[in-house]
């Protein structure tokens, strides 16, 4: 049992959003009591005290779309890589990298990603994995790392035709095997989706195989309309819009995540909304890849459940929040739009997306919710309360201000020190693995 207290408590619970000097008591993997620090200390004297040091206490973050396979790419410069369009970015950087990833590399990438997540107060991730050098067992390797590190994870493998039929079959089988594993071995910290890459890398034959292998057991996690490639390919080869292709194969639905959705039309948005399909925006990645600005304002009007991810561009959800706001305002030419939309995406909708795959309430501090709590170092010069927290987060805070991270009732990071995680040993192993990987990428 823990008592996290002596700080400003922001709960994201509409019934009691802010407690000036709050306390949260956890037992097992759940929150069992919320109140003032004095009340909680008196009622639960036996609880181990975790001091917030007068700082901010809040629900941990959820990342609704990321890529563990890019965990060892930071700083990598590939010989001859000078992309001029989206396809060249994929083929020259990311596909070149994942074609070299062994299971050892995947494991190191997972460790690197989870360390960064914990440092940034992220305790739940939806990952979309690719490692075409060594596919079988890759999701299971990530799952083992997730369990060891204590980060809640929904995993899938990126099916694509890009490396031939044999590799495509392996990717389909990896999804199917992992989905079966999760069904037969329920774990509240682990879930499975069926992953697919962009539509322009997927034939109808592959769609048919994926739908058969999934057999309705879970939702799909798929990139769509990130670049114009999907639009052109769907129009020229199949004589339909990208979302219509998904509709044809039964991919849409309340448990499916569509990543990016930049070049979608209003009729496509209507289909997404009508099927309660989820969409995840990744603003920094979209800007970095120069593929455009997602029409999130229009998608909100349509009633689409729209969440926020990072596409692994960062592990700092507050960084994504800031960029999501600024790109929408820049794109609209209006300085008074998108505030409610982007804060809703991160702080409300990501929790709703997670609720499709994890039974325990996330993204909120209240009795019965998951004990996913962070403490952020932030002492502003201006007043702060439940009414203006989002403004402080957008203009004054970043993920690395996280000083304490608890996930599922387990302390992972306390006063900027990892708990029961040998950071030094892991870092050394990650660095050694990365060096070998880079030598293969640039022989």
Radius of gyration: 21 Å
User: Which fold name is given in CATH as the topology of the largest domain?
Assistant: TIM Barrel
Name of the CATH class of the largest domain: Alpha Beta
- CATH fourth-tier homologous superfamily of the largest domain: Metal-dependent hydrolases
Overall pLDDT metric: 97
Strand content: 15-25%
Number of helices: 15
Number of discrete domains? 2
Indicate the structural class: alpha/beta
CATH architectural type of the largest domain = Alpha-Beta Barrel
Helix content: 25-40%
Euclidean distance between termini CA atoms: 52 Å
Q: Any low-confidence stretches, pLDDT <50, length ≥5?
A: none
Shape: globular
Sheet with most strands = 9 strands, mixed
How would you describe this protein?
By secondary structure, the protein is α/β, with parallel strands linked by helices. It has 2 domains: 2-60 and 361-418, Roll (Urease, subunit C, domain 1); 61-354, TIM Barrel, CATH 3.20.20. It has helices spanning 37-43, 86-98, 103-119, 138-149, 165-184, 204-214, 229-238, 242-248, 266-274, 283-288, 296-301, 317-332, 339-354, 389-396, 423-441; strands at 2-10, 18-27, 30-36, 48-51, 56-59, 61-66, 122-127, 152-155, 190-192, 194-196, 220-224, 257-260, 278-281, 306-308, 373-376, 402-407, 410-414, 417-418. Strands 1, 2, 3, 4, 5, 15, 16, 17 and 18 form a 9-stranded mixed β-sheet that branches. Strands 10-11-12-13-14 form a 5-stranded parallel β-sheet. Strands 6-7-8-9 form a 4-stranded parallel β-sheet. Helix 5 (165-184) runs parallel beside helix 6. The longest helix is centred in the middle third of the chain and has 20 residues, at 165-184. The mean pLDDT is 97.
């Amino acid at each position: 049992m823990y008592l996290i207290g002596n700080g400003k408590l922001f709960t994201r619970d509409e019934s009691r959003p802010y407690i000036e000097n709050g306390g949260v008591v956890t037992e097992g993997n759940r929150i069992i009591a919320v109140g003032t620090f004095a009340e909680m200390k008196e009622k639960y004297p036996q609880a181990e005290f975790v001091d917030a040091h007068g700082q901010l206490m809040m629900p941990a973050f959820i990342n609704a779309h990321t890529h563990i396979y890019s965990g060892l790419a930071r700083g990598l410069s590939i010989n001859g890589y000078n992309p001029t369009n989206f396809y060249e970015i994929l083929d020259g950087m990311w596909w070149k990298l994942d074609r070299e990833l062994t299971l050892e590399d995947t494991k190191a990438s997972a460790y690197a990603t989870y360390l960064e997540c914990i440092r940034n107060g992220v305790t739940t991730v939806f990952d979309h994995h690719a490692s075409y050098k060594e596919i079988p067992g890759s999701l299971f390797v990530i799952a083992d790392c997730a369990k060891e590190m204590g980060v809640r994870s929904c995993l899938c493998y990126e099916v694509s035709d890009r490396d031939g039929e044999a590799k495509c079959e392996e990717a389909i089988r990896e999804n199917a095997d992992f989905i079966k594993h999760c069904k037969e071995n329920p774990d509240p910290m682990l879930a499975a989706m069926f992953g697919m890459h962009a539509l322009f890398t997927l034939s109808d034959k592959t769609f048919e195989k994926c739908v058969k292998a999934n057999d309705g057991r879970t939702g799909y996690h798929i990139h769509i309309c990130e670049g114009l490639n999907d639009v052109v390919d769907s129009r020229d080869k199949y004589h339909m819009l990208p979302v219509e292709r998904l509709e044809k194969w039964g991919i849409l639905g309340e448990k499916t995540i569509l990543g990016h959705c930049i070049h979608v039309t209003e009729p496509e948005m209507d289909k997404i909304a009508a099927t309660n399909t989820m969409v995840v925006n990744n603003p920094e990645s979209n800007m970095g890849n120069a593929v455009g600005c997602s029409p999130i304002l229009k998608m909100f009007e349509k009633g689409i459940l729209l969440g926020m991810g990072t596409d692994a561009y960062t592990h700092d959800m507050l960084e994504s929040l800031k960029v999501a706001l600024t790109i929408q305002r820049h794109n609209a030419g209006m300085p008074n739009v998108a505030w409610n939309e982007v804060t809703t995406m991160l702080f409300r909708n990501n929790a709703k997306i997670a609720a499709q795959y994890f039974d325990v309430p996330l993204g909120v501090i209240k009795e019965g919710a998951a004990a996913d709590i962070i403490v952020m170092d932030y002492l502003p010069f201006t007043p702060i309360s439940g009414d203006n927290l989002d403004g402080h987060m957008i203009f004054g805070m970043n993920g690395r201000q996280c000083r304490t991270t608890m996930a599922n009732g387990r302390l992972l990071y306390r006063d900027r020190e990892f708990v029961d995680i040998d950071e030094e040993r892991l870092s050394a192993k990650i660095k050694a693995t990365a060096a070998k990987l880079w030598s293969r990428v640039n022989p």
